[in-house]
Amino acid sequence: MNIIYKCKVIRANEVLRRPFNFTGLTKFLGGLAILAALCQTVQATSVTLAWNSSTNPIVAGYNLYYGGTSGNYTNVISTGSATTATISGLIPGNTYYFVATTYSAPGAESLDSSEVSYTVPILAGVQLTVTPTRQFKLSLTGTIGHVYNVQATQDFKTWTVIGTVTMGTNGLSVFTDTNAASFTKRFYRTQG
Fold this sequence. Notes:
- By secondary structure, the chain is mostly beta strands.
- It folds into two domains: 45-119, Immunoglobulin-like (Sandwich); 124-191.
- It is elongated and about 70 Å long.
- The strands form four sheets. A four-stranded antiparallel sheet has the order 4-3-6-7, with no helix packed on it. Strands 1-2-5 form a three-stranded antiparallel sheet.
- Helix content is 11%, strand content 46%.
- The chain has two helices and 13 strands, in the order E-H-H-E-E-E-E-E-E-E-E-E-E-E-E.
């Protein structure tokens, strides 16, 4: 039995739809700190797994087992006759291991399928500091080696790419917005 997987991520910028109205540098920084905190806590990560259906006529359904250690599956989901399952609440940076089995109407269960693993990507996060010359220094976290677009907006409607960063071997990168002082308010996000 083969398991095919894909990642579905709900990012904070998809959840937050209303623009904030902040004025002044202090209120702006406080608002951005709140937004950054929300970005860290609103992210919900899930994975959808799919497998080929069994042609055996006695198969009544499927069980999907998973856990944080190879060969040790601490969770089980019975999918009935469905050949897909979505697992929610996965922790970014952690690796999960999955196997599937079939079962008959009386409850007999097959051997495990081949194991597949999935490492939940670490989603980009942003921390902000202001330099004495009113430049905004964004400390970014994300998946090692991944390239992210840094975007800015004043109205949460039109986002402009103001630069790109590549995450280093520690999953960190720094971007400085040298034009920040030109705006009365500015909000940031990463994309990629």
